[in-house]
Amino acid sequence: MDRGEADEGLAAFEKLLSIAGENKETFNNLGSACAEYALFDAAARYYERALGLDPEYVLSLRNLGKLCMETEQYEKALNLFERLVKKLPRDYEGNWLIAQCLKNLRRADDALVQLQQLAEIAPQSDEVYREMGMIYLNQKRDMESARRMFARSLSLDPNQPDLAMLMTQQQGRIEAPAGMPELVPPMPGVTTPVPQPPFPQIPQIPPTPGR
Fold it and tell me: What CATH number was assigned to the domain covering residues 9-88?
């Protein structure tokens, strides 16, 4: 959509407001229409106008929060999702999105606490344990905890071939030079994201004499 079309569309929206009246539902719907056409600034303004009428309006809290995540405004998104979850404490998506904001803000420990709380809300959710494993692996560099989370996720949904492959890859560790931190092997094909004992180390069989 070019600038002229955008301006024309926004003018039509404002005309609609003069007919329908200013209410939170109309503002929210207009915000969603703008977001659909990538008019993010206008969408944010409509969502904020809806929240100006009702600061606890769940639809606009959720929609504006997602829009902020889309534009990488993670602190603002976190605030909106926390307001959402205060109103709906057991809302799965709201709690999940809080964890995603915390992860993107590099607050790994807080993200893990949030995901643990979400696991209590939805104990059968394999994606929660998978995400915890990814945070342990990629941000905490805690291989043992990552394996436990991945094992729990696979116990809930065994049909995760990429995760099973990752578990196999993590049986061995890449040794780093002296004084350098341990390196984590690459994870091809994994885009996201307890207990299982460590994988046993199989001893080498010495060669048979004479061969």
Answer: 1.25.40.10
Identify the sign of the CA torsion 26, 32, 37, 39: positive
- What does the alpha-carbon distance between residue 16 and residue 33 come to, in Å, rounded to a whole number? 13
Ramachandran assignment for 189, one of left (phi > 0), alpha (psi -120 to 50 degrees), beta (any other): left
Tens digit of each residue's pLDDT (9 = 90 or more) over 128-159: 999 999 999 999 999 999 999 999 999 999 99
Nearest to 64 by CA among 102, 99, 97: 97
Per-residue pLDDT tens digits for 80-122: 999 999 999 999 999 999 999 999 999 999 999 999 999 999 9
38-47: long-range contacts (C-beta < 8 A, 24 or more apart)?
38/1, 39/1, 39/6, 39/9, 39/10, 40/67, 40/70, 40/71, 42/6, 42/10, 42/13, 43/67, 44/68, 46/13
Structure tokens belonging to residue 28: 């929210």
Is the pTM value of this prediction over 0.90? no
What are the boundaries of each domain within the chain?
Answer: 9-88, 108-166
Q: Can 9-88 and 108-166 be said to share one CATH topology?
A: yes
| DSSP H helical ranges for the chain | 3-20, 24-36, 40-53, 58-70, 74-87, 92-104, 108-121, 126-135, 143-156, 161-169
Q: What is the assigned CATH class of domain 108-166?
A: mainly alpha
